[in-house]
Write a structure and sequence with these properties.
The chain has 309 residues and is α/β, with parallel strands linked by helices. It contains ten helices and 13 strands. Strands 2-1-3-10-4 form a five-stranded mixed beta sheet, with helices on both faces. Helix 5 links the parallel strand 6 and strand 7 (144-146).
């Protein structure tokens, strides 16, 4: 390995490798003399497939090994799907850049359905997300939700072999992997509010590494950073984990930001949803104030009960 190479820690899943290769290409384009190498790592979240994420510690298990590689200086940067990144980063690490957001919506995949209402009564729908489960059941209480883990191709296989009538995945991942044609319907945020930072690729590095931060600065997309900051501030104020039934989606129109946020009962019996608008310069403040409103409406007790359960 060249001593000057920039080393990218990444999961070994096809989507994670695509994202790391994409970042690598962007870095080489921005810095033609830069050598970039991938450091593929196996994470606990990838290795344990027979239990739900909530049962084994949440989505943060997908990035712990990558962050350890940064701390041990076996890698210089790590590439993440930001929806998998916990609100609190380890001391000494930071998200130095984010790429332009892809489609943040959830996708319905089903052989003959072009909308949620097209699914037959009692349809078996695969998702391991409590956020998706809650909103789907709020709209269609008759649906039978089944756990769905594994890489995208593994999940598609369960649909194709008839184990499930439909599955819900993120539009962004399907598009990045070349499977956009499989999307039967894109679920609008009014029906299924996306996960915090869904569709955003983030690049993490050591906070003190000035050279790397300077290199990554060329990739940072400021508008995406603003909406991500608002959404993560909302979730952070709530104290929820990546697996909590929490959703948030911010949009920008020039310097004006609108932020929708939600906390839900996993069975869909109660959705606490609110919206706030203001200056994008106050992105984090908007997220925190919206969280305070949702907490005042009862989200605190709901989330505390789920943590204890």
């Amino acid at each position: 390995m060249s001593a000057a190479a920039l080393r990218i820690a990444t999961r070994k899943s096809p989507l994670a490798l695509w994202q790391a290769e994409h970042v690598s290409a962007l870095l080489r384009h921005a810095h033609p003399d830069l050598n970039v190498e991938l450091v593929p790592l196996s994470t606990k979240g990838d290795r344990i497939q027979d239990r739900s994420l909530a049962a084994i510690g949440g989505k943060g298990l997908f990035i712990k090994e990558l962050e350890t590689a940064l701390e041990d200086r076996r890698a210089d940067i790590a590439v993440h799907s930001m929806k998998d990144v916990p609100g609190e980063l380890p001391e000494g690490l930071c998200i130095a850049a984010v790429l332009p957001r892809a489609d943040a919506r959830d996708a319905l995949l089903a052989p003959d359905a072009k909308s949620l209402n097209d699914l037959p009564r009692g349809a078996r729908v695969g998702t391991s997300s409590l956020r998706r489960q809650a909103q789907l059941l709020a709209a269609r209480p008759d649906l039978k939700i089944e756990g769905l883990r594994g890489n995208v191709d593994t999940r598609l296989r369960r649909l194709d072999n008839g184990e499930l009538d439909a599955i819900i995945l993120a539009c962004a991942g399907l598009i990045r992997m070349g499977w956009e044609s499989r999307i039967g319907a894109r679920l609008e945020p009014s029906l299924c509010l996306p996960a915090v930072a869904q569709g955003i690729i983030g690049i993490e590095c050591r906070s003190a590494d000035a050279r790397v931060r300077l290199l990554l600065g060329a990739l940072n997309h400021a508008p995406t950073r603003l909406v991500m900051d608002a959404e993560r501030a909302f979730a952070g104020r709530l104290g929820g984990s990546c697996q909590s039934p929490i959703a948030a989606h911010a949009t920008l129109h020039r310097e004006h930001m609108t932020l929708d946020g939600l906390v839900a009962e996993p069975d869909g019996s109660r959705l606490l949803r609110d919206c706030i608008a203001g200056s994008s310069e106050d992105a984090r403040g908007l997220g925190e104030r919206l969280a305070d409103r949702v907490l005042a409406a009862g989200a605190g007790a709901l989330l505390e009960r789920l943590r204890n359960d």
